[in-house]
Design a protein that fits this description.
Blueprint (H helix, E strand, L loop, with lengths): L5 H5 L3 H23 L6 H26 L8 H31 L5
Length: 112
């Protein structure tokens, strides 16, 4: 993708957006569910929420990856690759956070 297009400029940042959006939605939806209607917060809800969060992270990481592969003659390739790699690390880190929150929903009862 060329940097002159809007998608070319923002594509390396997709992993950042996917990681933040996936973790934020997972955390907020599950915490609201457990706070206001705790009977909804069982293991099935935890796994479903985790799957949605990981899908958002995966889509963002894939878009970032496709934006940096290929064109070796791009003068901004190293910058784009750095941004994408940091975004991939965020996806990996936030995936672990989603995993821990999902495991907590399996271990702890939904309603005290």
């Amino acid at each position: 993708m060329a940097l002159s297009t809007r998608s070319g400029r923002f594509a390396p940042w997709a992993a950042f957006a996917g990681a933040i959006l996936g973790e934020a939605l997972h955390h907020q939806v599950l915490s609201d569910m457990l706070r206001f209607r705790c009977e909804l917060g069982g293991p099935a809800a935890g796994v479903t929420g985790a799957a949605v969060a990981w899908a958002l992270m995966g889509i963002g990481a894939w878009i970032s990856w496709t934006s940096v592969r290929g064109n070796d003659n791009d003068p901004h390739r190293h910058t784009r690759l750095f941004i994408a790699r940091v975004g991939w690390m965020m996806c990996a880190l936030f995936s672990v956070a989603v995993l821990w929150q999902t495991l907590a929903m399996w271990v702890l009862p939904p309603c005290p």
